[in-house]
Specification:
With 125 residues, the chain is α+β, with helices and mostly antiparallel strands. The chain has one domain: Zinc/RING finger domain, C3HC4 (zinc finger) (Herpes Virus-1). Helix content is 46%, strand content 17%. It contains five helices and six strands. The chain has a six-stranded mixed beta sheet with strand order 1-6-5-4-2-3, sandwiched between helices. Strand 5 and strand 6 form a beta hairpin. The longest helix has 19 residues.
């Protein structure tokens, strides 16, 4: 994991959008606080890669990601391609809450998002 990422938004509106996206995905998919969120995430198939062959989609695969721009749910391999082709910047692992930067090609650290991740994870326990 890289230390800090120079690609994190600096404009207040973009910072707010990224934080809002992160909060929703963290609370409803990565660390669901209620049984209804957990059931919704599983029954919607949101935790499965839509690009993987059907036989792989039958079980939950590791490193499922959610795009920060369009909320596509894909495995890390397909998310990298999605981010590159659509020029989207970030995706979040719905298993760990870590953020992946397309431009850095790595999971990156952001102090504010890390505080949000730890808070969501603690509520989940």
């Amino acid at each position: 994991m890289s230390s800090s990422c120079v690609h994190m938004p600096s404009a207040p509106a973009e910072k707010k959008r990224l934080r809002s996206w992160y909060a929703v995905i963290a609370d409803k998919c990565a660390f669901p606080r209620t049984d209804s969120y957990a059931v919704t995430a599983v029954t919607m198939g949101a935790t499965r890669c839509s690009e993987c062959p059907l036989e792989k989609r039958m079980s939950r695969l590791p490193l499922q990601m959610c795009c920060s721009r369009c909320s596509s749910f894909l495995c890390l391999m397909h998310m990298k391609k999605h981010l590159r082709e659509n020029r989207h910047e970030f995706a979040m692992s719905i298993e760990t809450g870590f953020v992946y930067c397309a431009w850095c090609s790595d999971f990156v650290y952001n102090r504010v998002l890390e505080v949000m991740r730890l808070g969501a994870m603690n509520k989940y326990r």
